[in-house]
Amino acid sequence: MTRVNMVLLAVLVACALSLVTSRHQARRLYVALERAQAEARAYDIEFGQLQLEQSTWGMPARVEKIAREQLKMQLPTAARTEIVALPARAETPR
Amino acid sequence: MKAGATTLRGARLHAAPAPARALPRLRAPRGFGALPLLFAGLVGRSVYLQWIDNEFLQTQGSARYSRALEVPAHRGRIVDRSGEALALSTPVKSLWAFPGKFDASPAQLAELARILETPPQKITARLAANEDFAFIAKQIPPEVSERAMALRIAGLHDQNEYRRFYPGGETTAHVIGFTGDHDAGQEGIELAQQSWLAGAPGSRRVIINRRNEAVEDVAAIRAPQAGRDLALALDTRLQYLAFRELKAAIELHKAKAGGLVILDVKSGEILALANWPTYNPNRRDKVARDKMRNRALTDVFEPGSTLKPFTIAAALDAGKIRPETVIQTAPGSLTIGSHTIRDVHAAGPLTVEQVIQKSSNVGAAKVALGLPAETMWTMFTEAGFGTVPKTGFPGEVAGRLRPAKSWKPIEQATMAYGHGISVNLVQLARAYTMFATDGEVKPVTLFKTDGHVAGRPALKPETALAVRRMLELATQPGGTAPKAQVIGYRVAGKTGTAHKLEGRGYTNKYVSSFVGFAPVSQPRLVVAVMIDEPSAGQHYGGAVAAPVFSNVVGSALRMLGVPTDAPVDNVILPPPGSEILEET
């Protein structure tokens, strides 16, 4: 009888300890998840900022301004445009 | 120690026995009665705290170990048809303080001013302005806010906000609109699509540890709802092209305002919609409301001759005339009652084709008078005049088309060439889709759609084709708009020059317009241009608006990779010095 009780006590202690460790484990993992989510949010924010930057730099108005002012480019006039007709007019319904 | 103990023992041994004192008789029962009473009081109190009045302690307790966290959700982006961002939100911070509790040392204040890049006096002025609440800095980048908060100034707080940016700036301002306080749409698409774009922040309760880190989820109070992205039909490249050409024309002709619309013939999508004057939605503190109007949709004007093709189409469809029917326009005027309609350049007999090509008011009026008012009204209504275009833009107007029963003959005659009726530019562009297709009017939309959209038949296919041919003639020598021609592409279109109606009469101010489409062999784009009050000498639609059409449609077709349908030497301009005829 005593022996059975001792075994049960040992099992009980083991269970209690494993509960404590798994609880601790769960909290640690949760903190890690929390950090990862915060990181994801930060990346999300950065992605938004980069998108904004990309579309601001890529706006046609800015591209044209640089082409005209820094690179001294200009639109070809009608006189300087040559249109090459395709040898066999391919039908490209789009 | 030992000696002391002995002494004590000795003292006890030799001490006289204490006199026996009788205890009060009721002491024991009282004591035994009082103790359980006290104990019962304690039990009662704990029961009360545990089960009955537990709210206070519960909240106080949970305030120490749990916390509600805001889960942010930002407003959806607005993108163009290829996914280029036209409006997007990024998180920013605002710094605020209770001026009474704000306590910064001079060194801290100087450092704060340096971080925020403002003079320290400005910060103190803001604090002095209101004693309850003051913004120290609004909508600053999160990094800057972090550096400011690191100073640990007492009474300084930060809050999360979103700021909306518009990379397209003034080119897309009128269509997109903008958001106001709390990231809520206030104008344009931002307003119309508020419920689609807006996100709802969520909230959840967590348990925190002593480092203020969340260690466990308790409950989700509200799930966050992210805003959804919205794809517009606009093409950023075409939009810029339209804006650039419109602006250039307005500056050249010293005009007051203007608009330009590009429609996709197949789907009815608005590929570009530009307005002048405009504003920068990213910096709109001192912009007049007037500049924020999307004139192409919310303002109406009398279209003038751009309406003649509809009169002719109604008569052709009804079988009253044929393209080669001859109409006598001499002597260049037509008197109806007490009113006289005039052509600027009197001509003799003209075929119906030539009436469009040379834009004869008298010719168009005579055709109209040969029709029942009901027939003309039906044609205008089918074309979409007098009904809102339903593009999905807030505040678009229907224009004015009175019921046919109320028309007097003179009104029917003037409506034939676009006076006594008002339209907006998008309506006008949409109406021309019936000539660009086989007689179908396409529904127009600002939102991206995929592929072919069926229209509503308004004309017989052969009528559409006949009018298309007349409109092509109008852009060729002998027509009113040779300047609308484009190298390599066949174009068709109609000029309009209308006197502006002010108060009760017509003035000598004009609205010049051109509506056309290209390539004629298989139309892809409808382009409508309107220039309000050109005042640099020229005011005819053929001189003011047609060149804008030519530049826009030529570049747009090349950008879209549409194959050419004409030889490269197709542009035949009248010899220099010769006058281009134009009627109003």
What's the SSE blueprint?
The complex is a heterodimer of chains A (94) and B (584).
Chain A: H1 2-58, H2 60-69
Chain B: H1 2-14, H2 27-52, H3 55-65, E1 66-71, E2 78-79, E3 85-97, H4 106-116, H5 120-129, E4 134-140, H6 142-149, E5 156-165, H7 173-176, H8 188-192, H9 194-197, E6 202-208, E7 214-222, E8 230-231, H10 236-252, E9 257-264, E10 270-276, H11 295-298, H12 308-317, E11 326-328, E12 333-336, E13 339-342, E14 349-351, H13 352-358, H14 361-369, H15 373-382, H16 409-416, H17 425-431, H18 433-436, E15 440-441, E16 456-457, H19 461-474, E17 492-502, E18 505-518, E19 525-532, H20 541-544, H21 546-560
Parallel strand pairs in B: 2-8
Antiparallel strand pairs in B: 1-6, 2-3, 3-4, 3-5, 6-7, 9-10, 9-19, 11-14, 12-13, 15-16, 17-18, 18-19
Helix pairs in contact in B: 4-6, 10-21, 12-14, 12-15, 12-19, 13-19, 14-16
Mean of all residue-level pLDDT scores of chain B:
87
| Count of domain modules of chain A | 1
| Backbone CA Rg of chain A | 35 Å
Series of secondary-structure elements of chain A, N-terminal to C-terminal = HH
Q: Largest interface, and how many residues on either side?
A: A-B, 30 and 38 residues
In helices, the fraction of residues of chain B equals 25-40%
Low-confidence stretches of chain B: 1-7
Tally the beta strands of chain A: 0
**How many domains make up the 3D coordinates of chain B?**
2
Reported for the largest beta sheet of chain B, the result is: 5 strands, mixed
Structural class of chain B: alpha+beta
CATH class of the largest domain in chain B: Alpha Beta
- Distance between termini of chain B? 132 Å
